[in-house]
Amino acid sequence: MPTSDEIKPKLKAPAGTTDTHIHFYDHRFPVAKTAVVKPADALVPEYMKVRKLLGIERTVVVQASAYGTDNSCLLAKMDEIGPSARAVVIVDASVTDAELDRLTKLGARGVRFFMLPGAPLQWDQLEAVAARVAPFGWHVIFQMDGRDLAEREAMLRRFPAKVIIDHTGKFLEPVGVDHPGFRTLMRLVDTGNFWVKLAGPYETSKLGPPYYNDVGVLAKTLAKAAPERMVWASNWPYAGAKTRPDNDAQMIDFLLDWIPDEAARHKALVDNPAELYGF
Question: How many helices (H) and strands (E) does the chain have?
Answer without folding.
Answer: 10, 8
